[in-house]
Amino acid sequence: MLALLPRVADENVLVGFDTADDAGVYKLTPECALVQTIDFFTPIVDDPYTFGAISAANSLSDVYAMGGRPVSALSVVAYPAKGDIEDLEQILRGGAEKMREAGCVVLGGHSVADDEIKFGYAVTGIVHPERVKTNAGARAGDVILFTKSIGTGAVSTALKRGIAAPADVEASIASMLTLNRTACEAMLEYDVHACTDVTGFGLMGHAREMAVASGLTLEITADCVRFLPGALDYARQGAIPGGLRNNKDFASCAVEITRELPQEVESLLYDPQTSGGLLIALPEEDAVKLADKFPQAYRIGQVIPRAAKPIRIV
Ligand code: CO
Ligand code: CO
Ligand code: CO
């Protein structure tokens, strides 16, 4: 649908909506560009404070994925007219405290009455126009690093079905609450060619965007991908989010699988992530240094010249 819309003709648009990147980037001066993004969704955990905080971390992530520094945010709230006002306060408080942790100021927001709760933020960041990390710059020979484990969608689905172990839910929540700030700050010290965050379209969907935008193939080593505790078990038990099926329907035609894979592993490669990690393409020697400085970053594959499909699983 976006392809049908008129393109913006403005030389200051450094990243617009036509490249499926994480955020829009608009150059204000030769030294400063705005990074703008918005994200909101329905509750994925029971506790309202935690939901607010996760939503904030998730909304900030697209700014970090562009190599930016979040500066200000506006909240977006949909809440039942007769809903519990203390729960709403907890959602906003959780969000506000996560924003404070990020050094990002909440300036205001907008709310509507809606039977289904939704919450998130429009976030504005800044970046030097020459240091924007798009998803398009990967080069053949680059190493692919990833900074979190996969499986928040499967664990959330297991929680809704009442089959998730509390410790597994805790681990998933801790991952979603972790800002990509440290990962971003660490990567900015190296020669990063491309970066994106893994969110709703899953690892395959976002890897595909990077591969297509860069005109190359991402070769992902399935055995290297880390999964959250319990995620593979829940997938095996059928805790498959609706979004995972949609992601697979959309992206599997871009994925070449060259070996036998357990069904649940293949499934989770499409698992929609909330507040997922950064996917970073950079030269081998920089990858080694980055993983040394920021040990949560680990190698999941490499960039190769364009092969049969944008993604090749080995
Ligand atoms: Co993103
Ligand atoms: Co987003
Ligand atoms: Co990016």
Describe this structure in words.
The structure is a single chain. With 314 residues, the protein is of the alpha+beta class. It folds into two domains: 2-131, 2-Layer Sandwich (60s Ribosomal Protein L30, Chain: A); 143-313, Alpha-Beta Complex (Phosphoribosyl-aminoimidazole Synthetase, Chain A, domain 2), CATH 3.90.650.10. It has ten helices and 13 strands. The strands form two sheets. A seven-stranded mixed β-sheet has the order 8-11-7-12-9-13-10, sandwiched between helices. 48% of the residues are buried. The mean pLDDT is 96. The protein binds cobalt (II) ion (3 copies). The site of one cobalt (II) ion (CO) has 6 residues, from α1 and β8. One cobalt (II) ion (CO) is lined by residues 22, 62, 65, 196-197, 199.
Proper CATH architecture of the largest domain:
Alpha-Beta Complex
The outline comes out as globular
Q: Numbering strands along the chain, what is their spatial order in the largest sheet?
A: 8-11-7-12-9-13-10
Q: According to CATH, what is the class of the largest domain?
A: Alpha Beta
Number of helices: 10
Low-confidence stretches: none
- The percent range for strand residues is 25-35%
Number of strands: 13
Mean pLDDT: 96
What is the SS-derived class?
alpha+beta
